């Protein structure tokens, strides 16, 4: 993963995003590209008669905001030991981010912060990026330390294409882990890739992992995954992400929405 893309937003999770982006860039010896997108709609105002216009004071305020966040990020990265660049773009956020992600290996973003007083990353935006980008998303926790990619990794495996894609796209990170565990929630006999296929795939890439099959109990699946991650001290969780059409078919489908909204463990998720 030599090309790391960081989605910059001036919200309460910016420092966590920066720390996670720096961690993965250092671990892989890569280059960090930061992108801040100002939505085109931010320039538009409406009058009481349904008219649409652009006010000069809005343009000035947005320019000041863009300059402030650029200075904040550039000052933060100035003393770091990784190569980086910064780009300011005006456009439709999902389109711009997905376009830049086409030549990136992983995208670092953040979650909605309902307790924050500044800008947020709506869960719908994250969901759209997850569906359209062809790279994994790294979502740090809202607080706590950045993931240690030389630590323990947990794979949430359900045998789906999305789960397989997440493992394959995260392989460069998994190769760095000291320990890899895979958790499968109850056995699947419905045509999904069996857990033995996961073990075989990883072994062919010289990656060793330990599989644990957990019976599906009364607790929500997300809690089961988080409990296991905490039990083994996982630095991050790798899992597949699902859209509305696939969520009902996937064992972890309902977890996607919950984990995009909040997760106490750093998440590497791919569609």
From TrEMBL:
Pfam families xref list: Usp
Residue ranges occupied by any UspA domain in the UniProt entry: 213-270
Similarity remark: Belongs to the universal stress protein A family.
Name of this protein: Universal stress protein
